[in-house]
Specification:
The structure holds 2 protein chains of 2 kinds.
Chain A (H helix, E strand, L loop, with lengths): L17 E10 L2 E11 L4 E6 L5 H9 L6 E6 L9 E4 L13 H7 L8 H14 L15 H13 L5 E5 L7 H17 L3 E5 L3 H7 L2 E6 L2 E6 H4 L2 H8 L7
Chain B lengths: L1 H34 L3 H22 L13 H22 L7 H19 L6 H10 L7 H30 L1 H6 L4 H23 L1 H18 L3 H26 L3 H25 L1
Helix pairs in contact in B: 1-6, 1-8, 1-9, 1-10, 2-3, 2-4, 2-5, 2-8, 2-9, 3-8, 6-8, 8-9, 9-10, 9-11, 10-11
The chains are: A alpha/beta, B mainly alpha.
Chain lengths: 248, 285
């Protein structure tokens, strides 16, 4: 009998959660990315770095299944193929403000497709909000929150699903320094203690240096990916950004 | 006033019931239209269904097609209305985001093309212009028992689907990337909702006309948006608002001899203003 929890990877086959092989992504007639090879394993904290317009967000969309690769393939581990334990945090909340919603409802919307009792739902909701410092805000009007608070609710919404893989597109946009630090520390703890894998689009090299176990550098339609210590080298950064870490 | 309304029940009960049930159905679908910011698209779909009816009537007036009895049947015109509405909703879905003109521009084109061509098609037909004007201005008189059953069935099916899947449906409407991330299948859902929108609007257009259809699609959802604190409550409040406005509208229209569809839409418009002002006042207090 298989005693694993739903979504848990078999011990012998946990080499990757999601894998891109030879992926080419086009936007209209223009090729955004070509020959991308990247493999995310359990417990890895990936930072996707690169200048604006180098295809980081497009690559995330491809991982989410919103953009189809022109060639190559993106494979999700069979145990996670239903994506029930994926989470996503967008750059900002671009929802229709004419729609009324509370923090509670907004977070619980993302529990769609999961079957659980109300008690468990409430427990997960409380834990997710507490993890982003918004405990006790369940009944508040989502639109009465500040931009930074709304961004934290987006993170809580993704965490409420107990994800194995969390994909985040510049999630610290709009957060003050203290909130950003607290959020990153919390994510790093989940990464260490619960083997949560993270894909984190960022422009912050200092943050990447501190937290990343792996880095993907996006530059001129190509991606250089691997362990952070191998990728975050002065030569690579000079090539991508025109300056190295020593100069920052 | 109530007694006069009750006296008219024997003659117009199908009209009243079809009006209420189509209002409830449109209001539920309207919450999704508002969530997906597709108000303009729904107007274009309604206009396209009037083109479908015009095409059906035009075809029925052409020799040798004019000899085919079924071309003049109500079922054929309803099928044409639904067909064009569904086709428009699906076309707009597939061009959304992938066209240089942009979704809103294409929707505008559909609206204008459908409005102008439906009038032009029937400009020389004896009763054609009259029929198009009736469709645009709305008349509930003439609904049959079949309309009552049809709208009742569709309203029931929509309500059951919303009860079972409201979270997934709202998430896919509001935040497609998150919905895709957690494995919800966006493409089939998007096709299904576009087809459902077309079906509901097409059938409502044939029975109740443009004003009532568009009014009950948009205004109850706006009322619910002003009253509710949560989205899921809107699926209850919007149909209630439609039902209340249609009930009151039919009673007043019957008493003072006004057209019931226009009275209902006018009451809903007034409701949006009054509730909006009350809400603003309460926020200041």
């Amino acid at each position: 009998m298989d005693s694993r929890r739903p979504g848990q990877l078999p011990p012998s086959d946990s080499a990757f959660l999601i894998r891109a092989r030879g992926v080419r992504l086009d936007y209209g007639a223009q090729t955004v990315l070509d020959s991308v090879d990247l493999q995310v394993g359990a417990g890895e904290f990936w930072f996707l770095l690169g200048r604006n317009g180098t295809g980081k967000s497009t690559f995330l969309k491809a991982l989410l299944g919103l953009v189809k690769p022109r060639s190559g393939c993106i494979v999700v581990h069979p145990a996670l193929a239903q994506r029930e334990r994926f989470g996503f945090v967008p750059q900002n909340s671009v929802f229709n403000p004419a729609l009324p919603t509370t923090v509670r409802e907004f977070v619980l919307l993302a529990m769609a497709g999961l079957s659980m009792g109300r008690k468990e739902e409430s427990r997960r909701l409380g834990a997710a909000l507490a993890s982003v410092g918004l405990q006790g805000t369940e009944r508040r009007d989502y639109w009465s929150l500040s931009d930074g608070q709304r961004q934290r609710v987006l993170v809580a919404r993704a965490l409420a699903r107990n994800p194995r893989l969390l994909i985040m597109d510049e999630p610290t946009n709009g957060l003050d320094v203290a909130c950003e630090a607290a959020l990153l520390e919390h994510l790093a703890t989940l990464n260490r203690e619960e083997a949560l894998s993270l894909l984190f689009v960022s422009h912050n090299l200092a943050t990447a240096t501190r937290y990343a176990t792996h880095v993907a550098l996006f530059h001129e339609r190509r991606v250089t990916a691997g362990r952070a210590s191998h990728i975050l080298t002065s030569a690579n950064l000079k090539h991508v950004y025109g300056f190295s870490l020593d100069e920052t | 006033m109530i007694q006069s309304f009750l006296d008219s029940w024997a003659l117009f009960h199908n009209t009243y019931l079809a009006g209420w049930l189509s209002g409830i159905l449109l209001a539920m679908v309207g919450v999704l239209v508002l969530a997906r910011e597709q108000i303009f698209l729904s107007a274009a779909v309604a206009q396209a269904s009037s083109l479908g009816i015009a095409l059906g009537m035009w075809a029925g007036g052409q020799e040798p097609l004019a000899r085919l009895d079924w071309l003049h049947s109500d079922a054929f015109l309803s099928a044409m209305a639904v067909g064009l509405a569904v086709a428009t909703a699906l076309t707009a879905r597939s061009t959304n985001g992938g066209n240089r003109l942009g979704a809103e521009a294409i929707t505008g084109w559909i609206f204008l093309a459908a409005a102008s061509s439906s009038t032009l098609l029937l400009a020389h037909s004896p009763h054609g212009t009259e029929e198009i004007n009736r469709l645009l201005s709305s008349s509930l008189i003439g609904a049959s028992a079949a309309d009552v059953w049809l709208f009742g069935g569709l309203a029931g099916a929509t309500a059951l689907t919303l009860i079972r899947y409201h979270r997934a449906i709202l998430l896919m409407a509001m935040d497609p990337p998150m919905a895709a991330a957690i494995g919800l299948r966006l493409r089939p859902w998007s096709i299904l909702t576009a087809a459902w929108l077309g079906l509901v609007i097409g059938l409502a257009m044939r029975s109740t006309g443009m004003l009532f259809t568009f009014g009950c699609l948009v205004l109850p959802a706006l009322v619910a948006g002003l009253v509710c604190r949560e989205l899921r409550a809107m699926f209850v409040i919007a149909p209630l608002a439609a039902c209340l406005a249609a009930g009151l509208g039919f009673v007043i229209a019957n008493e003072y001899d006004y057209p019931p569809a226009q009275m209902t839409v006018a009451l809903l418009c007034a409701g949006v203003i009054v509730i909006g002002l009350m809400r603003r006042l309460l926020e200041r207090i």
